[in-house]
Amino acid sequence: MLESIDLSLVNWSRAQFALTAMYHWVFVPLTLGLAVIIAIMETLYVKTGDVEWKKITKFWMTLFGINFAIGVATGIILEFEFGTNWSNYSWFVGDIFGAPLAIEGIFAFFMESTFIAVMFFGWNKVSKKVHLTATWLTAFGASLSALWILVANAWMQNPVGMHFNPETVRNEMINFWEVLFSPTAIYKFLHTITSGFVLAGVFVIGISAWFLLKKREVVFARKSIVVAAVFGIVSSIYLAFTGDSSARDIAQNQPMKFAAFEGLYNGSEGAGLIAMGFMSTTETDPSNENLLDFNMKLEIPNILSYMAYMDWNAFVPGINDLIDGNEKYGYMSADEKIERGKVAMAKLKAFKEAKDQGNEQLAKRLKTEFMDPDFQQNYFSYFGYGYLTDKNMLIPNVPLSFYSFHVMVGLGFYFIVFFCFALFYALKGRLEQRRKFLRLAIWSIPMAYLASQAGWIVAEVGRQPWVIQDLMPTVAAVTKISTSAVQTTFWLFAVIFTLLLIAELKIMFRQIKIGPKMDGGQH
Question: How many other CB atoms sit within 10 Å of the CB of residue 498?
């Protein structure tokens, strides 16, 4: 099925989408978290009447606005790429994937954009409570906008609430609520927006630390750090819990991804968690460059079994179990799945040929057989495997998945400790004396962005080769256009996005150096 597909086109299309998504995610998490922090700060202003809180709110609101404006541009391009580069995917699941994207554009983004205008330009024009309401609704709109995007992504990871229509060769939604409230969607949404909250908390503390090092705006910096630290502690602890729930969901619905980011090659009962490990350049299997041996690893017994199945002695399948099969624990081999996928594709092809030839009786029989629940469960559920020619294509990039996951988790625990120290020093009035900590706070900002990007690498690289889990591999989703066209737009976007990022950083740095201002208004 893949002989006619140009793999260089697939790789360049993936690279272009990854480039756009990663640049877009530079801007999004700060928007998600900073919007809530701003709303909290303005609430303190309205409750206390302390004009210092108004000055603090307006400063962080300015940085929010700069980030929001540039983030919109990359988001729009990202959605257009589904049509330009991934038209086969859009055709196959457009009825499902398009719904949350449409809701996000029509409702969530519209709401966010409407109230953001009041938030920025409503000072001294509307009452304090109306302005505060607009600020909270902007924060709510930002999270609501993220919800629909993440629901769409979660459906790709775990397709539910749909059925396949052989007449149109498309997947159609039959249960919107199952799509919206699937455990995968819930965990992905909660974990992702909370990661944005953590990043924003680190950002506020880091920028405030710069003011303290410069001995400027000390009261502003102290108050900002207290709010961001409390917000960060709650968010980072909750982030750890949502990450645990998300990992458990992945273990059950995407076991190959789970095995890849845990570096688990051979499954076992009471599987241990690799807390730290370094891979060598030696391949455990010469036929696959993604399977590298470990030079060193620190493993904690039984933890992985409990994390995956809430059972200290549960069997956790490794990559080899999922590829070669494990009859004892009921895991089918990849070769068998590929064969079943081909049977499903052959049945669909025969049905379409009967329809085209006008043989309605044969077509009706083949459709009945295709839609039979047993056939759907035992054959169509492996439809995407029919595109594959080699079982090794099912193994994602293990080193990249493993290191990205451990960087993300390690930094996640670091941020919990970081926020606790920030709050402790702030409440004890020792922040100005802790100059090493203040410098560390500044350097923690890029670390937060690194953790955020690593999380998406785990989510997207770990699920390869699937664009829709088990139903459509990436190689079948790509638009058949010239590779040179994708290469040209890749470099064009790379230049544009880099210039946008440089522009944002320059504007941000300029505003930070100017510092917070107090206007003459009484509102």
Answer: 12
CB of 239 within 8 A of CB of 194?
yes
Strand, coil or helix: 478: coil
Asked if residue 284 has pLDDT above 90, the reply is no
pLDDT, mean over the chain: 90
Q: What is the pLDDT of residues 288-342, one digit of tens each?
A: 666 777 888 888 999 999 999 999 999 999 999 999 999 999 999 999 999 999 9
Q: Are 437 and 418 in contact (CB under 8 A)?
A: no
Longest C-alpha distance within the chain, in Å? 85
Question: Could you tell me the CA-to-CA distances from 354 to 341, 357, 365, 444 in Å, in that order?
Answer: 20, 5, 10, 62
Instruction: For residues 429 and 26, give the distance between their C-alpha atoms in angstroms, rounded to a whole number.
Output: 33
Per-residue pLDDT of 71-119, as tens digits, reads 777 777 877 888 888 888 888 887 887 778 777 777 666 777 788 888 8
pLDDT of residue 523: 47
* Residue 285 DSSP class: S
Please provide the distance, in angstroms rounded to a whole number, between the alpha carbons at the two ends of the chain: 67
The string of DSSP codes covering 198-254 is HHHHHHHHHHHHHHHHTT-SHHHHHHHHHHHHHHHHHHHHHHHHHHHHHHHHHHHH-
Residue 141, pLDDT score: 87
What's at 54, amino acid-wise? K
- Kindly report, residue by residue over 139-196, the tens digit of the pLDDT: 998 898 888 889 989 999 999 998 889 988 888 899 999 999 999 999 999 999 999 9
The two tokens of residue 299 are 């493993």
Q: In the structure encoding, which two tokens stand for residue 479, read together? A: 């638009």
Contact 88, 477 (CB under 8 A): yes
CA atoms of 53 and 49, how far apart (whole Å): 8
3-state secondary structure of 465: coil
Residues for the chain: how many in total? 523
The three-state secondary structure class of 519 is coil
| φ, ψ (nearest 5 deg) of residue 90 | -60, -35
Contact 386, 1 (CB under 8 A): yes
The answer for 7, left when phi > 0, alpha when psi is -120 to 50, beta otherwise, is: alpha
How many helices, marked H, and strands, marked E, lie in the chain? 18, 8
Band of pLDDT at residue 286, cut at 50, 70 and 90: low
Cβ neighbours for 110, distance < 8 A, ≥ 6 positions apart: none
Question: What would the two tokens of residue 258 be?
Answer: 């789970």
Please return the burial class of 88, using the count of CB atoms within 10 Å of its CB with bins 0-12, 13-18 and 19+: middle
Q: Read off the pTM.
A: 0.91
Beta bridge partners of 297: 277
